[in-house]
Fold each of these.
Amino acid sequence: MRKPRRALALAAVVALALPLSACGSGGDDGGSTDASGKVEGDITFQTWNLRANFKPYFEGVIADFEKKYPGTNVKWVDQPAEGYADKISADAAGGTLPDVVNVSPDLVAPLAKAGLALDLDKAAAKYKKEYLPGAWASHEIPGMEGTYAFPWYLNTGPLFYNKSLFKEAGLDASKPPKTYDELFADALELAEKSDGKVATLANVPTIEDFGRYGVELMNKEGTAFAFNDAKGVELLTKYKELYDAKALDSQALTATPESSGKKFLTGAVAMNPGSALDLGNFKKQAPNLYKNIGITDQITSTGKVNMYVMGVMVNAQTKRTPAAVAFAHYVTDAQNQMSFAKKVAIFPSTAGSLDDPYFTKEDGTDETRVRVAAAKSLKNAVNYTPVLFSEQMKTELRNSVAKALQGKESPKAALDNAVKACDRLLQQQG
Amino acid sequence: MASSSGTARVTGPVARVRRQLPTSPWLFAAPGLLVVGVFILYPFVSTLVNAFTDRRTLIPGEFVGLANFRELLHDEMFWIGLRNSTLYVLGVVPALVLLPLLLALLVQKNIPGIAFFRSAFYTPVVASIVVVGLIWVWLLDERGLVNSLLEAIGVGRVGFLSDQWLLLLSAMAVTVWKGLGYYMIIYLAALANVPRELHEAASVDGAGAVRRFFTVTVPAVRSTMVLVGALSSVAAFKVFSEVYLMAGPDGGPAGEDTTLVMLVQRTGTGLTGRVGYASAISVVVFVVTVALMLLVLRADRKEDA
Amino acid sequence: MSVAEKVRESPAVVDTQRRPKRVTDEHGRRIRVWELALRYLLLLAVLALTVGPFLWQLSTSLKGPTEDIFSSPPKFLPSDPTLHNYERVAETVPVWDYALNSLKVATANVVTNCVGAALAGYALARLRYRGRKVATLVFILAMLVPVESIIIAQFTTMRDLGLNNTLIGVLLPACIASMNVLLMRNAFLNLPYEIEEAAFVDGANAWQRFLRIAVPSVKGTLAVVAIFAFMGAWDDFLWPLIVLSDPDKFTLTIGLNYLHGTFANDERLAAAGTIIAVAPLIALFACLQRYFFRGVGEGAVKG
């Protein structure tokens, strides 16, 4: 009987010891918020799916930094697009988060709440004025003091449309829709004329669509969601109408950004949001579409287009706070953002950079036209997606919207349920 | 390790030696037990413990008793997940018990080139599920090969990847497609043990192929069928990759195609993951799979008696 | 596991190449021509179903940028085959470095699984000691654990051992899979006791019996375990993604995932990526299939 009993005892010890080790993460508070010391030591910098296309650029930036601050050594790691949040959460839970991390605002929020993101209003306040005020503010967390990441690149883009599909439906291809009413009217027209074969939109409304439509997404205090107001219900009702008329693609409920891009490429969908980056893609992959491509502004009811913000945060537990802060600032400073922007169709978040001739002078090509228009619209653009809107909340909203579109619930009931579920998740985030 | 050989030296009569000193067998099993214990069971026990806490990814939890399990009862998504995982078992298992058997009968005869066919039928098993997912999403795409063919023969395009039920069916089809070769091999091994006298006797009696299948083949491989049933039902209930890859992380329109393990993944991972709640779902999955296994094995034992 | 014990096996799938040329069934009788034709027809139909999708993927990956890959009716053969897509994959991700990492992990996984599973399987099947049933139960339970749900706990364990971000960390959790242990156990159970009993009388100890008699008799099952181990390590995605952070250490499946993010719209490139991922496995399997089928014949894959 000796062996089994020992095995049992071992199991018991394991079970007892477990909660301790399981909760032991994040206890070790090695870092300091003081960034004023000497910039030196080894740090790790993690980016999000940028190695494949921009390896030389980042190697250059790192080499320059190491030259500027002798005694520093930056190790660059890049993670694939898929599973990035999983990767960060495993690292965060395991205490192995890199010193400097490429994040988006919704990733920063839980990290900041767990005390893993450095408050830059304290540690790097002197750099604040170098950035566009809106961009700097995008990494503030409702309910918390401070800003938790340097703003990095911004992105926004026009709405592309397929002129030949517009023409076939008897619409004036030189007059794309400018308002939501026009958009909905044109979409219904296109669906009717093509006998349901051509949809105009490929995606169900997301939280940013509600924002752009002018819906108040959260209450003023940032403690509860509010997108189930009359305006929100109105938008969803409109989408339901489009879905029933096949003006919203029948596969929209399961669409991903990739799949809807593909549909636009193949002429199954008449409009698709995109960026200057997509133009090259069209040219290469769908030359016929490229000849017929129309470009128009994002449609909003608020006059402010949506923008995506990328940030660079500093791990609050880094052992090398001065070097980490210095590097996070270095990557995102005006000069480096500008040279990055010239490599790829993104926009710098540093003050004044958007006034550079590169973003204001047209040279007649479509690429430049899109870039100049986007840069102009960025000056008052908004990141509509609330910082506290987690992956689980996005899923709740998508599922509720799908139920409304399928007619299983009324738009009002669906949004009420979504708000209720999101509020509960918000409270659980604590 | 070498030292253990000394302890196991045979000194007495065979019957007595079979009951060895305990040290050596444990040393044989030690590496396996260690790996499984440290990297599977220990994390699993920690998951069990978490099921009774409100732990989140970045926030250590507190003991909450049965609160997570109580919440499950009122969670619509949990019931959808339970429904889909159960449907998956019901849909996939009969196909995986029957089709590979027929396939094994087809490749059993040693006709020229049969080795090639056997290997070829096994290829889907070899490929990674991620690759298989990508291939089938591409095939079943609205403008993919299958729909192009359907349109060419006048059926018209079918929304395999957009309709709630078609999605689940497509995922089941992929599971069956990928599993065919695997279970075919198991049957092939079992069929080789069917004494040829049985078939010959039946032939002499004038039994046709169909009747021989039911009177000779099926009874002879019955216990293998039960085994395949047990293995495939456990795997089917834990289905994740096929549905995740084809229906997307949300689980199809309005999440209606979510399976239980997908729900575990969705609620428990990411920076805002509810580790405690997701662990509670894992516990349910575990309990059901163990129950399924016992059920199938017990049914077998009863029939035997 | 009582089922498995009940089914006694003998070598099943006979090697076809060495058979005489005459077309016969498994009982040595002639097969009628129409029946033969029907069989081949069915075989070809199943072949189209099982291998067709891979060929379609291959065809897509060989189509040039100007060729319409969405056409209806579909074109099965590329009109102007090109390896351009493969070049682009190699330019985008260091495919060879990643393949080498995958190879390292997969090879190590084969070794650890064969050795560890054979040892443990032997202990479960042949050696008598108290707690054997418990040990068997441990492996069965481990097989039932849904891996997706314990991955974070696994990661925390790995970090406590200081092995995250190493290829060893990638290897360890599956380096002796319980499925393989149970496979080996069944193979050993199916060996007649008499063989070993003779060795008992000769005074051989457990180690000698294991190495000289038992292991050589289950080579086929070892081949099955080897293939499963190689496949498992080569195909795994989520775990290496979680445990590795250094791109120099990425395995092929993670590396190829870059394609998905970077060229999401390009079916041709994605197709080339999947072919790169799957081709080595198919080649390996083609080489080992003879041993593999023999191994299965030993009753190996019986749970």
Amino acid sequence: MARPVTSITRFNMTALALGLAFLYLPIVILVIYSFNASRLVTVWGGWSLRWYQEFFNDRAMLEAAWMSLSVAAVSATLATLLGTLAAIGLARGERFHGRALFSGMLYSPLVMPEVISGLSLLLMFVAFSIERGFWTVTIAHTTLTMCFVTVVVQSRLVTLDRSLEEAAMDLGCDPVRAFLLVTLPQIAPAIVAGWMLAFVLSLDDVVIASFTTGPGSATLPIRIYSEVRLGVKPEINAICTLVIALIAVIIVVASFASKLSNARGENAAPL
Amino acid sequence: MSARRIFARPARFAAIAPYVWMVLFFLVPFGFVLKISLSQTAIAQPPYTPVFDVAEGRAALAAAFAQLSFDNFRLLLSDNLYILSYLRSLVVAVSATLILLVIGYPIAYGMARLPRRWQGVAMMLVIVPFWTSFLIRIYAWINILQHDGLLNQILLALHIVSAPLVWLSTDSAMYLGIVYSYLPFMILPLYATLSRMDASLLEAANDLGASPLKAFWLVTFPLSLPGVGAGALLCFIPIVGEFVIPDLLAGSGSLMIGQTLWLEFFTNKDWPVASAAAVALLLLLVPPLVLYDRLQRRQLAGRN
């Protein structure tokens, strides 16, 4: 049995503390400045909700936010369905024809530069003269995010004790029933975490959405991006803070889900 | 054993839907990139002349093959702009990966040496920024780095500089943005290998008279190489094709290949050249992708 190494030295602690400060400080500063009353982003003019008000009166921004939230919800749901099925196939399907191609297709989008995925999908949509808008972005996001769901659910399935499934089948369950009654409840937290990761990734994407969306249906990140290119605006700070708050809620729920799955077995999904 | 085999059939059946989806929306689109990279630019909507049309049958197909156009690839090779942006992408990705390794290693090391119950918390803290919107995190840095931003204010207040420095639109800002965005991707694989290390190995090195530094170089570091490889590839591959970070933080002087592709596509509306650039970028990424896949497989095999 390998024994883990534990050593708390000044060097280790400094490295860790500096690293975490580096990761979090910029976000904290952004959130604080979103409550700044001054129009100048850099001058502190006291606390105010002015820029939040501005956002809730900005029709174009609100429409983009609505578009983003609906794309994220629909694509995350589709991605969770497809990604879970793919994970089952990979973790329980043993050997089958085209398995290498299947896992290759599922793993390469994780690192594939987004400009390539976006461009290739767009060229196909144009070749089939499919009108671009909500559904094309949703399809693109589903394709990208289902790969992340697959990784999360598969890593949970692989660590699962299979004797329970086998016992259920020995007791007369058919495989589908055994899966629904025994396996599914055990991987449910990973599926929930997968859905949330897919939702967040979709909410975040600029590049693929820019390629696959049509005129008049910009997502929130596309709008933020075009504003940011022109410079810092206090309203953007407020929008970003709202997005961060939404994501924070999602993270709390997801970590609760993964804690559940931790309690049921070691080595929960890493994401 | 037989129960497993009975289970495998419906499991394979479950894979059909995602399989078809990925072929349709991941594999087939690459065919279109390849096809359009071989066609000619035209002022039309869509802006290219199809080299062949499957509907026209075999004869048309044969005729089309005779006049396949490699002009776009020839252009990529002859025009300095493209070669330079490829080189720049490689240089940026290699240097950023090295910086990430130097910064990420001590953090991952510190995490792996924490008592077990704190490790989960530390890992959570590293993963959370990965969930937080990547665009927002870059924007947060623009807030800090701009002309009258926090960084210049602090430097001025401390009398380190007498006039505000230019941070935005520089390569340093771009590297900062890349390192900031990709740090969790470097830390997590490193942490995974470092936390699995057996304490008795280091004790043995210690008993045999190695200093802690020497024990690190001779024992810990070589054992962590799979994590180094995985982290480096996980960062290198997407950084090569990065678009948003250089576009927002670097100057417009020299472009990375992702930016060139974007420019050709959206600004110049030259779809065939953009496609050719995508094909070339993909070819560049095949070796690291294969390497990464092999590394993953070896680690999975080692774990079972």
